[in-house]
């Protein structure tokens, strides 16, 4: 029996690590309201990919290929939109279907929604949750870059919420995400419209299958979804879009929502994408690089984020050569699935899950050196008991740290390489329980390191 058990364990563990075990139920909020848990209460680190156009621009074989790659890379959430951004009401999906038989009456075209159903179920089989946006925000108001058309109002938002809420109330791998890259406008009815859509969705919720809900905004300072909806009961956790510029102090944004009352998890749902024009200005600023993306991710999580979303510019729009490109994607989406950061994000997830999880807190006080809000900003996180701490060095700069909070008198340490996920022993000056000057193994842009002490 022991041999059989060991064999089964060896077979199962890789599948668990890669997120390929079929999902048993929706994720939940942890007891301390800071994190997410699996259906069984074990830790769930949100590691999402952005595939806004997944339902709109892929057929079933392509969706299978995409989800298989992302599951292998360790992603456990995919963010996608039912009423898609890129003319999703009028431009048919891969099977020639549009979402509505009649837009005014919101009567569903079942063939379109059956394709959405199929992909959601396929994702569940691969261990992936779908963070489902019922609609992109341009269906409420187009602004300067949306296609629309604007179809939602106070009069029909709840109706649409009821329709889509009833359809997916029993899905075990769903997370609701309202908003869709639009901030509610002042002196308009936008907040009320989103509240009514949330009400419609919640009216069909299954008490035995509670599905979490959040809101995806545009960049906003200092709060994201919390700016308009933090006190709403339907908002289970906060989401930010920190945007597509490389040198924003995103840790301040996460920290803002971390400190709000009531306590709710918070995370960055749209950071700088891989192969994205920096600040939408490729001519002058070039394209994003893994160093900047990695720095933003570690900053966010160490500042208290309950996970992190990744995105690739070609993948979110499922760009192929026969499609109109948006903001200069560099290659077809199939060629962009194996970019460096797509394979490095799992190292962050694995690092966070390697220590006691639910009692982890941000601790800016671990760093004693004077700092500016720039790309060199060093940030720390630890557990409440003081049994461990982690300090992220974005550029390998020598920094003064204070380990007084740790319970062990003799400090043990090791280095963690965010690029490879490899740990190796700390070699340098002996670390004490008080203040220490620490120099990472290498310095300069792209030489980021995590010091783990206990």
TrEMBL record:
Domain Putative collagen-binding: 361-453
Apiosidase-like catalytic domain segment(s): 30-358
Top-level taxonomic group: Bacteria
Gene3D superfamilies listed in its UniProt record: Glycosidases
Pfam families, sorted: Apiosidase (PF13204), Collagen_bind_2 (PF12904)
Annotated InterPro entries: Apiosidase-like_cat_dom, Collagen-bd_put, GH
Protein name: Putative collagen-binding domain of a collagenase
């Amino acid at each position: 029996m022991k041999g059989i058990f060991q064999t089964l364990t060896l077979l199962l563990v890789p599948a668990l690590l890669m997120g390929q075990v079929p999902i048993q139920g929706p994720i939940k909020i942890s007891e301390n309201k800071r994190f997410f848990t699996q259906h069984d209460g074990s830790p769930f680190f949100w590691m999402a990919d952005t595939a806004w156009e997944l339902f709109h621009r892929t057929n079933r074989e392509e969706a299978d290929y995409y989800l298989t790659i992302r599951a292998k890379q360790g992603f456990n959430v995919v963010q996608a939109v039912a009423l898609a951004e890129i003319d999703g009401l009028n431009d048919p999906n891969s099977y020639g279907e549009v979402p509505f038989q009649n837009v005014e009456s919101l009567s569903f075209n079942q063939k379109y929604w059956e394709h959405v159903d199929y992909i959601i179920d396929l994702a569940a089989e691969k261990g992936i949750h779908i963070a489902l946006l019922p609609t992109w925000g341009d269906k409420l108001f187009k602004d300067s870059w949306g296609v629309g058309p604007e179809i939602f109002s106070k009069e029909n938002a709840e109706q649409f919420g009821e329709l889509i809420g009833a359809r997916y109330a029993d899905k075990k791998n769903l997370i609701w995400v309202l908003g869709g890259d639009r901030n509610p406008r002042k002196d308009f009815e936008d907040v009320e419209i989103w509240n009514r859509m949330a009400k419609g969705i919640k009216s069909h919720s299954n008490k035995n299958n509670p599905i979490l809900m959040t809101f995806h905004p545009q960049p906003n300072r200092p709060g994201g979804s919390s700016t308009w909806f933090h006190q709403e009961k339907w908002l289970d956790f906060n989401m930010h879009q920190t945007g597509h510029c490389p040198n924003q102090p995103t840790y301040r944004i996460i920290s803002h929502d971390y400190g709000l009352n009531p306590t709710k998890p918070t995370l960055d749902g749209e950071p700088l994408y891989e192969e994205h024009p920096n600040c939408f200005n490729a001519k002058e600023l070039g394209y994003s690089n893994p160093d900047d993306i990695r720095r933003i991710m570690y900053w966010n999580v160490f500042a208290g984020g309950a996970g992190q979303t990744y995105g690739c510019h070609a993948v979110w729009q499922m760009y192929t050569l026969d499609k109109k490109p948006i903001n200069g994607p560099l290659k077809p989406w199939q060629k962009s699935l194996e970019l460096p950061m797509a394979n490095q994000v799992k190292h962050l997830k694995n690092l966070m899950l390697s220590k006691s999880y639910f009692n982890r807190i941000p601790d800016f006080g671990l760093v004693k050196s004077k700092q500016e809000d720039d790309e060199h900003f060093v940030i720390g996180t630890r557990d409440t008991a003081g049994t461990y701490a982690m300090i992220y060095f974005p550029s390998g700069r020598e920094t003064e740290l204070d380990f007084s909070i740790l319970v062990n008198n003799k400090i043990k340490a090791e280095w963690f390489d965010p690029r490879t996920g490899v740990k190796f022993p700390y070699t340098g000056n002996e670390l004490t329980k008080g203040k220490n000057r620490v120099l990472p193994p290498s310095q300069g842009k792209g030489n980021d390191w995590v010091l783990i002490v206990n």
